[in-house]
Automatic annotation (TrEMBL):
Descriptive protein name: Probable malate:quinone oxidoreductase
Organism of origin: Alpinimonas psychrophila
PANTHER family from the UniProt entry: L-2-HYDROXYGLUTARATE DEHYDROGENASE, MITOCHONDRIAL (PTHR43104)
Gene that this polypeptide is encoded by: mqo
Catalytic activity: (S)-malate + a quinone = a quinol + oxaloacetate
Assigned protein family: Belongs to the MQO family.
Source domain of life: Bacteria
Length: 491
């Protein structure tokens, strides 16, 4: 059967493919786009609202973006970068809302204060230093700090109710934080794409990526129902398949994918929908990670808005599974091992004993221990009010390192071929929150000759494009106010 020819193939039905697809549809409306998703609906893996915490990562409350150095100092650069990237997402979403390309803002984003909460002398002192470091930054204007239990109780009553003992506590609060339903957002982005000519094939597995002599990619697919094989040719392929991206990039044969490995981490959340409890907590409250815990396992007590319903979520409780996707295969991890990444993976394993110990401890944690972790945040928590849900499967990047042999890298990484004809995304948090910024990187890497032509349109969609809000207080204030107005958020 003759292969159907398209300009762009997007592999995976998550927030990354959706974001890139909408950007390209705005920039090159004449390009044909074909999307493949192996499940029966989009946003069923990491983009599902209950697979992630919907935090809208902006560095406002996540302490792992500002770790304390051995000399006791704190440095804000990572938090500033994450916040800057989230502002890019807010601007793009505002553009889409204003143009009626997305639905009402409250269907996917809602104002939710972001807080950090710690206890113990050392942690209180650290949080005070972090606050002093950030309070003068333009994108962190309005940050509040308190070590007064009465004030913290006004901010988030559940944190102090029935809290006993003499341990000092402290918290910071940013009223400009948000909760994002990435599942709803992803659905709306794909709805826009399919209304405007993009083709979406569900229940369709990409089985092979082959570079042809003419420079195009032959994309072989198979329907899950009927197992009918088909093929397409594409000038550009983006692999946004979450945990499935590594296998497809390896399958493509591009040298840039060599040396990469993946370390899967599973997880669970505790959730309550009890209106009496939910009404007492309106914030996302992050603490400090346990020793050896990966950044995605920082404990937090979150307000969530999903499908018009408010709930509370606590976790995550990390664990280990060899699957790279929630609905993946038990052979995903062993199947990802290659000669070119074996040394990398062995080196990472040898250097991350604390992480392995942490995951083993989480795997064997009893319901009582899980409740005890919740009670560190919410002393009055009762087991009967909460139930476990499965979080998204995350795959941390393992990559070559000349000195260490291999390192475990937290965050996300774009892997692209030298000619820019294929790109894929590896890694995890803060992925979804900074999806627009990441996809702009994909455009720059893969379409360098088109970026200057696209720049006027990009600046229309993202007014701060090419500049940094973090070093221009007036522009930061203006941008925050403008996006808050369009997205119907509280400043």
């Amino acid at each position: 059967m003759k292969a159907k020819s398209v300009d762009v193939v997007l592999v995976g039905g998550g927030i990354m493919s959706a974001t890139l697809g909408v950007l390209l549809k705005q920039l090159q409306p004449d390009w044909s786009i074909q999307i493949f998703e192996r499940l029966g609906e989009v946003a069923q893996e990491s983009s599902d609202p209950w697979s992630n915490a919907g935090t809208g990562h902006a560095g406002l409350c996540e302490l792992n973006y500002m770790p304390e150095a051995p000399d006791g100092s704190v440095e804000p650069s990572k938090a500033l970068v994450i916040n800057e990237q989230f502002q890019v997402s807010r601007q793009f979403w505002s553009y889409l809302v204003a143009g009626k390309l997305l639905g009402a803002p409250k269907t996917f984003i809602n104002s939710t204060p972001h807080m950090t909460f710690v206890w113990g002398d050392a942690n209180v002192e650290y949080l005070r230093k972090r606050f002093d470091c950030l309070k003068g930054e333009p994108l962190f204007a309005g940050m509040e700090f308190s070590d007064d239990p009465a004030v913290i109780g006004e901010w988030a009553p559940l944190l102090v109710a029935e809290r006993h003992g003499n341990d000092p506590i402290a918290a910071t609060r940013m009223m400009s934080g948000t909760d994002v339903d990435f599942g709803s957002l992803t659905h709306q982005l794909f709805d826009y794409l399919t209304r405007n000519g993009a083709e979406l094939a569900l229940e369709t597995q990409v089985t092979k990526l082959h570079k042809q002599r003419d420079g195009q990619w032959r994309v072989s697919v198979r329907d899950n129902i009927g197992q009918t094989p088909r093929s397409f040719t594409a000038k550009f392929v983006f692999v946004g398949a979450g945990g499935g991206a590594l296998a497809l990039l390896q399958n493509s044969g591009i040298p840039e994918a060599k040396g990469y490995g993946g370390f899967p981490i599973s997880g669970e959340f505790l959730r309550t929908d009890d209106p009496a409890i939910v009404a007492q907590h309106h914030a996302k409250v992050y603490g400090k990670a346990s020793v050896g815990a990966p950044p995605m396992s920082v404990p937090h007590l979150d307000n969530r808005y999903v499908n018009g319903q408010e709930s509370l979520l606590f976790g995550p409780y990390a664990g280990f599974s060899p699957k790279f996707l929630k609905k993946g295969s038990w052979l995903d991890l062993p199947g990802s091992i290659r000669a070119h990444n074996l040394v990398t993976m062995l080196a990472v394993g040898a250097r991350n004993v604390d992480l392995v110990k942490y995951l083993v401890g989480e795997l064997v944690a009893s319901p009582h221990k899980k409740l005890a972790a919740l009670r560190e945040f919410m002393p009055a928590a009762e087991a009967k009010d909460w139930y476990l849900i499965t979080a998204g499967q995350r795959v941390q990047v393992m990559k070559k390192d000349r000195v260490k042999g291999g390192v475990l890298q937290f965050g996300t990484e774009v892997v692209s071929s030298a000619d820019g004809s294929i790109a894929g995304l590896l890694g995890a948090s803060p992925g979804a929150s900074v999806s627009v910024s990441i996809m702009l990187d994909v455009l720059k890497k893969c379409f360098p000759a088109k970026v200057s032509e696209w720049e006027p349109a990009l600046k229309k969609m993202i007014p701060s494009y090419g500049t940094l809000l973090s070093v221009t207080p007036a522009a930061a204030k203006k941008s925050l106010a403008a996006t808050a107005k369009v997205l119907e958020l509280n400043n």
